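task queued by scheduler; priority normal; single chain, no ligands, no partner chains; default sampling; output format set to structure tokens
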Amino acid sequence: MAKDDLVSFEGKVSNLSGGGVFFITLDNGVDISAKLCGKMKRFKIKVVTGDRVTVGLSPYDPTHGLILHRHKF
């Protein structure tokens, strides 16, 4: 599935887990798990607890996502 097919949501990182898995609370109150996208890994963009992020969710599995963007304050 291409990145163009993902549905974008905004949320806040609530917890970190091993293996690069982040737990995110979306603005609508749903909790999901997500990983960093390839470009964020490539350019070593750090995401910590409390950061606002944009997450791409697949319409087929809305419980797992891909962190696409970290918002600046």
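post-processing summary
- Strands lie at 7-17, 21-26, 31-36, 52-57, 64-70.
- The first helix runs from residue 38 to 42.
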